[in-house]
Each structure stands twice: as C-alpha cells, then as structure tokens.
Amino acid sequence: MRVWRICSRAHRRFDGEGARRYGGRWNHTGTSVVYTSGSLSLAVLELFVHVDIDTAPGDLVAIQVDIPDTLTIETVKIERLPRDWRRYPGPEALKDIGTAWASKASTAILAVPSAVIPEERNYLLNPAHRHFKRIRLRKPAAFRFDPRMWK
Q1: What is the structure's pLDDT at 56?
Q2: Cα-based distances in Å from 114 to 10, 38, 69, 98
Q3: Is 108 helix (H, G, I), strand (E, B) or coil?
Q4: CA distances, 2 to each of 23, 84, 133 (Å)
Q5: pLDDT tens per residue, range 114-142
Q6: pLDDT for 147
Q7: Could you give phi then psi for residue 65, rounded to 5 degrees?
Q8: Do the beta carbons of residue 15 and residue 32 sit within 8 Å?
Q9: 74 contacts 33 by C-beta, under 8 angstroms
Q10: How many whole angstroms separate alpha carbon 43 and alpha carbon 56?
C-alpha cells in the first residue's frame, strides 16, 4: 500500500516528533505518531485546511511511503465515533483512540477516516512499533500548491 505525507522540508523526518510535541486530531501531546494520507490529493487537502496563503511553508515536500502488504492495519470505523467527530478542533475522544492504539502497539498502522473527506482514509504510523522499520520512504519531492487554490 502507498500513503503520502506533505510537510515542510525541515519536518520530513518520520519520527512523530511534531505530533508528540503538539498533539493532533488522533493523538494527545506526548504520543508520537506520523500522520499520512491514502492519496497525494488527500494529503494536499489535509494540509490545505490548516494553512492559508500567508502561512503556507514555501519549502513543502511530498513523501511517498510504501507499506508492505504483510503489515496488519487496525481500522477505526466511523460508526463507532462520536457524532461530532468531524468538528474542529476534534473531540478528545479521537485523541483517546489514537493514543490508546499507539500505547497498545498492536499494529504499526491505524487507518482513520478523514474529517475532510470521510469516505477516504488517513493512516497513522507508530514509530515506536517494532514493525515500523519495515515501512519504506521514498525520496521527498518538492511540492507547491496551485495558486488558484486561494481564489
């Protein structure tokens, strides 16, 4: 399976440090996870909803990530989420789910629905899991938003 991450060149490391330091929709501060998306276009939208033209980093890179088919993926089903799971900021219950998954370390990958497009999936990677080293990163490629996105 292939997943994608878009980030500034300075944050291209797959160590979950940003999520550990600041938390995210699916993890509490103090828990390291790497956020990726099931397609490059979803990765673009996931970043786009968090930046504006004045704060978008000028040194973005897209990173293609290959996950071996032999790795087990745990899946979070929408019907088991709180009714307001898509709100911003996300409810604490989502952080509890992702943090519990990372702590339990039963799998290296957690599939979660995208709040931007619920029919698509984002994938959390657990850098502390013993199988994380089997995940392969491709060379980061420069990425720029199309300026028409800010019309």
Answers
A1: 75
A2: 25, 10, 22, 14
A3: coil
A4: 24, 29, 15
A5: 999 999 999 999 999 999 999 999 999 99
A6: 82
A7: -125, 125
A8: yes
A9: no
A10: 14
Report the domain count for the chain: 1
pLDDT value for 101:
98
Print the domain residue range for 23.
Answer: 2-150
Mean pLDDT value across residues 3-13? 91
Q: 43, 106, 118: which is closest to 77 by C-alpha?
A: 118
Q: Among all chains, which residue has been given the structure tokens 């991450």?
A: 5
Return the structure tokens found at 99: 């943090």
Over residues 14-63, the pLDDT tens digits come to: 999 999 999 999 999 999 999 999 999 999 999 999 887 677 778 999 99
Per the listing, tokens 């998954």 go with: 101
- Can you tell me which residue has the tokens 């990726």? 36
Please state whether beta strands 136-137 and 60-66 pair in parallel, antiparallel, or not at all (unpaired).
antiparallel
User: With pLDDT > 70 as the criterion, what percentage of the chain qualifies?
Assistant: 99
In the block, tokens 């600041």 appear at 22
DSSP characters for 48-88? HTT--TTTS-SSEEEEEEE--TTS-EEE--GGGS-TTTTSS
Quick check: 107 and 71 in contact, CB under 8 A? yes
Residue 5: CB atoms within 10 Å? 24
- CA dist 60 and 114 (Å) reads 21
